[in-house]
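thoughts on both lines:
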Amino acid sequence: MHLWITCRMTHVFALGTLLGRPGCRPLVTHGVEALTGMLHDDEHGGWFASADDDGPVSDAKEAYGHAFVVLGASSAVLAGAPGAEALITEALRVVDERFWRADDGMVVDSYDRAWTAADPYRGVNANMHLVEALLAAADVTADPGRLDQALRVADKVMGFARTNGWMIPEHFDAGWQPLLEYNAETPADQFRPYGVTVGHGLEWSRLLLHLDAALDAAAGPGREGGRAGAPAWLREAARGLFAAATTHGWAVDGHPGFVYTHGWDGAPVVRERMHWVAAEAVGAAATLARVTGEPEYGGWYETWWDYVATYVVDRAGGSWWHELDPQGRPSSTVWDGKSDAYHALQATLIPRLPAAPSLASALARGLLDT
């Protein structure tokens, strides 16, 4: 049982519960029980990266997985799952006390089980998902400080992206110096691929717009309470990231779909097509279309849904193929099987919900198709 998949599917079934789908509520409860049971480290605190009935399979403490604990717990609270409120309280405390570095405005990537040593590697992926989790937690806890925390992360990462033509460096050393050639010998690594990860540019583009809307909502009419609204650079960065990902990622090798990664020169590196990249493209295009009103983004939205419908949806086996080769055939170079429904489900909901509040909160407030 992997922590990140358990959390993501707890989130998915919480969304299903809020949508009124039969059979989802017991699975949210099951997810919370797994997070307070098998996957929880009762001795040292935090959560194992993976575990089975015999105990931890990987006892690493990873910021990536812990960010998803915050997300899954936030959604479970809104779905009314027993134990979810205590779970999100603990998850936020662990993130703040163990992973968050105030001087950096970022989280470290991982620790050993007993929290005695942090891995010197620093990564953007965990920080990106922390932003998503903090947006959800801000809604559930009514703590606007979580938005400020998310903004600090976004500001740091966009500083790196802006100086690299809106291509996001993903890998860093302990001092947050970029390692642009990291994993050049193993470019198709599942979590730390070499070069530019196209889907992350699209995912960040969408998240920046969610953060923009959340900050403006928190400021309130007339900026009550002395809170500033969203800074203008959030929308600028969202546009830049979207443009770079589209230019360097979409059908650049003559075949439909987004390549998984490309080099710093823009040339494709890993050409397999990941379902989650297409899902994030749909979400980013829909959100930019709503926020800007510009028809260009609506055009991309239609193009990418057509691609998903033609190639990615598995009409015989269900769900979406998680990986396709450049010719559109199922493959498993990076990912084997269909690990979860997180990206696919969110792609169907983001176009039907406002940019803020976060997805589960919007569903709980009855904002679907409003």
